[in-house]
Amino acid sequence: MAALRILVVRVLASPAVEGNVTILVLQMQRMGDLILSFPLFLWLKRAFPGARVRVVAEPMFFEPLAAVGPGVEYVGWAGTGRVMSDAYGLVINLSHRSEAAVLAGRVAAARKVGPVMEDDGVLRVHGAWQLYRASVVRNNRHNRYHWADLNALDVIGPRDMAATRWDAPRHLGDGNGRVALFLGASQPEKRPDADFWGRLAGELARRGLRPVLLGGPAEVGLGREVMARCRRGALNMCGRLGLAELARVAQTFNLFVTPDTGPMHLAAWTGCRVLNLSMGPVNPWETGPYQPGHYVLRGAVSCRGCWECSRPDMPCRRAFDPARVAYACWRIVRGESARLFGAALSGLDVYRTARDDRGVYRLEGLSGDRPGAQDLVGDFWAEAFGHFFGLSGPDRARAAWERLALASPKLAKAFTRGLARLGAEFKEGILGRGGLFEESFWAGFPPFLRPFTGYAHMCLHNADFSRESRLMCLDMVSRLAEATKGA
Questions:
Q1: Which of 48, 94, 103, 417 has the most crowded Cβ, counting Cβ within 10 A?
Q2: Distances from the Cα of 108 to the Cαs of 87, 91, 435, in angstroms?
């Protein structure tokens, strides 16, 4: 985490973008990341009328997706010579690849957001929200901001986000009974195994639904394994559809059941109702289906939402039972999601994707249980950082804290004790003393305080621990103390 150096003070003072300009977005990640950038493209065209939006991305992804995404100009990496010849009003780097940071540093622009390789050879992240996103790497346990929102929050105002109305996913009723099962994911631990998929296909067929196996070339073998395990009939389409064909075929499904993967975002973007089986080192608050009205299933285990799993038994995967997942699919297809709670889904939590009054993504629990301590801590930090960066006022952070303190008084007392220690260390650090300068500083606090210590430590590193940056972080500590006063 300390390898990134972030100049927050300069970022916050960067000039506004005005007039008929060209905006450059660098999105050189995978398919899902590109699709999660589509909302940003729409908001840029709304916020900067007449602006030309140019996107550097991977041709293998943007070529089949251009027809279903917003109307922007795509350029492959081979065309960056043409990119370099123009000046820009705004550059947004959404990639973590080093060559993207170098390109962001070399192009001329009035304002830059995201990782930028500066003239002095130091990598800096511009933008408070982009810095926040960088700070949750291996530190995302309590993050409650979606990547699609974090792509935009440094440049798009909450009014534009709140004014956006997303069409509800299509509901075909029982329709043709077709339910897609997308088998693959970027990592094996993020998806079910062949035995699970085979049993799920059989359970769906038993309930009168028609399972269709989907996957790319990498899932052809897995598709055969699933068919061998499926007790009832399923249609195997693995390896037969490209992205453009998948987008068209998705219109015919009653439900698209999938792990966290790029085709999940394609299905959601094109209006197909999604049930996300969220397992392994993924966090649906960050990468779940983005539009409102989709569904997420998670194992009811305390370690879920991790950055990477160190447990060979993978308890979040073991929580998924094919019969219970089939029951959830059946209820959703019938339009009966309100009945997704109780013993029928024991061991699983079910959520529906939604928006709050600011237009920011959120997950609404449908299980009927009260939020746990982890969720309440995450809600508090979401409101605290929203307050820090001007997304909302202090009242929301205070209300989130009161909910946490009421539900878990012992945790609230431990939090305030840790906050007092944090304030003391920052005061010592302003004088040039204490552990503030150590690489291990951010991780030396309990996990419930690390959202702030992770962010603050990156901020300090970027500004070379300047007095100004230390005072800025100390001011954040003071605002936290104000919000949590009286616990």
A1: 94
A2: 5, 9, 39
Nearest to residue 113, comparing CAs of 125, 101, 102, 96? 125
Q: What is the CA radius of gyration of the chain?
A: 23
- 467-483 helix and 373-388 helix, angle to the nearest 10 degrees: 130
The two structure tokens encoding residue 144: 């409650």
Contact call for residues 280 and 191 (beta carbons, < 8 A): yes
Query: What is the C-alpha to C-alpha distance for residues 13 and 465, in angstroms, rounded to an integer?
Result: 18
Reported confidence tier of residue 18, pLDDT bands at 50, 70, 90: low
| Phi, psi (rounded to 5 degrees) for 54 | -110, 135
Rounded CA gap, 296 and 345, in Å?
A: 13
- Dist. CA 76–CA 68, nearest whole Å: 18
Tokens of 185: 């994911």
d(CA 297, CA 275): 7
* Paired residues of 113 in beta bridges: 92
Q: Distance between CA atoms of 421 and 225, rounded to whole angstroms?
A: 55
The answer to whether 368 and 340 have CB atoms below 8 angstroms apart is no
Cα separation, 465 vs 485, whole angstroms = 28
Three-state SS at 195: helix
0.70 surpassed by pTM: yes
Give yes or no for residue 343 having a pLDDT over 80.
no
Angle between helices 194-206 and 220-229 (to 10 degrees): 50
The values of phi and psi at residue 279, to 5°, are -140, 160
Strand partners, 206: none
Contacts of 204 (CB under 8 A, 6+ apart): 179, 210, 211, 326, 329, 330
Q: What are the contacts of 465-473 at 24+ separation with CB within 8 A?
A: 465/429, 465/436, 465/437, 466/9, 467/430, 468/9, 469/8, 469/9, 470/426, 470/429, 470/430, 470/436, 471/430, 472/8, 472/9, 473/426
Q: Show the beta-strand stretches assigned E in 41-187.
A: 52-56, 73-75, 87-88, 90-93, 108-109, 112-117, 123-126, 178-182
The number of residues in the chain equals: 487
pLDDT band at 1 (very low <50, low <70, confident <90, very high): very low
Burial environment of residue 3 by CB neighbours within 10 A (0 to 12, 13 to 18, 19 or more): exposed
**What residue has token string 């929580």?**
319
Distance CA 179, CA 173 (A): 12
- Rounded to an integer, the average pLDDT of 228-254 is 92
pLDDT of residue 257: 98
CA distances from 445 to 133, 261, 351, 435 (A): 19, 33, 31, 12
CA dihedral 252, 189, 277, 65 (to 10 degrees): -40
